[in-house]
Design a protein that fits this description.
Membrane topology: Multi-pass membrane protein
GO biological process, one term: L-alanine transport
Order of helices and strands: HHHHEEEHHHHEHHH
Radius of gyration: 19 Å
Structural class: mainly alpha
Protein name: Leucine/isoleucine/valine transporter subunit membrane component of ABC superfamily
GO molecular function: L-isoleucine transmembrane transporter activity; L-leucine transmembrane transporter activity; L-phenylalanine transmembrane transporter activity; L-valine transmembrane transporter activity
Distance between the termini: 55 Å
Helix content: over 70%
Strand order of the largest sheet: 1-4
Largest sheet: 2 strands, antiparallel
Keywords: Amino-acid transport, Cell inner membrane, Cell membrane, Membrane, Transmembrane, Transmembrane helix, Transport
Number of domains: 1
CATH architecture: Orthogonal Bundle
Oligomer: single chain
Strand content: under 5%
Length: 301
């Protein structure tokens, strides 16, 4: 029994780390623009495909697989960051003064565009990641098994979240981001370039999400073009659970949702996982409508 509990704990922390990385993109955009970027999940899976291309093209080059995996992460983050910036310029910036419904429709259209673009570029078939990219190492403790990929995901997610938290709360640019999220007009009066801050959010969020997308591919060893909607929805739920617009809340929500799903699948049934996820969301919102770490903020009119 203890072994099962520990195994589900490891699985939950692994998937929760991925959810948290993707949820950060949702919460950063919402924090500054009060907009749900529904295309974010598809951008993350786009990063997985970019990483798969890099891994496939370098497989026969003779270089170390660890270096190849590292290069794939960097390439995926850079390409998806550029795609996120292009998305902000084309789909969101022209509608910044429009009503929120227009921005939501634009976000949904961008999601469908990216999803179908992935299908056109790589086809609708499931793509499989190479199995020999990382050493086949694993450890056992208390009856639970943890492999190298899980260790890398948990450590990588923790490091990225810690670096982002430090950047937002302990740097001048992070202060500018928090000021723009609090009041854009006041931030402009203080000399902050709000447009640049918004663009940086659409660079940082997708770049971190691309890392999460590539983690998905390495963990499950497969990707398909509609996967962005599934993981994007779970990450969005994680952001709501933690408190949308709150960076520590997105981290907490992602980890909690991953643990909850893992234990639900391990002790109940994986077929009930989605229903249990929404039951958790409804239960938390009934008690804390603003999320676990969210704050009640008066809406400006």
């Amino acid at each position: 029994m203890l072994g099962i509990v520990l195994q589900q704990l490891v699985n939950g922390l692994t998937v929760g780390g991925i959810y948290a990385l993707i949820a950060l993109g949702y919460t950063m955009v919402y924090g500054v623009l009060r907009l749900i970027n529904f295309a974010h999940g598809d951008l993350c899976i786009f990063g997985a495909y970019i990483g798969l291309v890099a891994l496939g093209s370098g497989a026969g080059s003779g270089q170390s697989h660890l270096l190849l995996v590292g290069a794939a992460f960097i390439l995926a983050a850079v390409v998806v960051a550029a795609a996120g910036l292009a998305l902000e310029f084309t789909a969101y910036r022209p509608l910044r003064k429009a009503d929120r419904l227009s921005a939501v429709v634009s976000a949904l259209g961008a999601s469908l565009f990216i999803e179908n673009g992935i299908m056109l570029l790589w086809g609708p078939q499931l793509k499989v990641f190479p199995s020999n990219l990382l050493p086949a190492m694993h450890w056992t403790f208390g009856g639970a098994r943890i492999d190298l990929v899980q260790v890398l995901i948990m450590l990588g997610s923790a490091v990225l979240m810690a670096v982002l938290y430090w950047f937002v709360h302990h740097t001048r640019y992070g202060t500018a981001m928090r000021a723009a999220a609090s009041d854009q007009d006041a931030a402009r009066l203080m000399g902050i370039n709000v447009n640049r801050v918004i663009s940086s959010v659409f660079i940082i969020g997708p770049a971190i999400g691309a890392v999460g997308g590539l983690f998905i591919g390495l963990y499950y060893r497969q990707v398909y073009f509609t996967m962005g909607w599934t993981y994007g929805l779970n990450a969005f739920i994680a952001a709501i659970i933690g408190g949308i617009g709150n960076i520590p809340g997105a981290m907490l929500g992602g980890v909690l949702l991953g643990l909850f799903n893992a234990f639900a699948a391990g002790f109940l049934s994986s077929s009930w996982q989605e229903a249990i996820t929404f039951a958790l969301l409804i239960g938390i919102l009934l008690v804390r409508p603003s999320g676990l770490l969210g704050e009640r903020v008066a809406e400006k009119v």
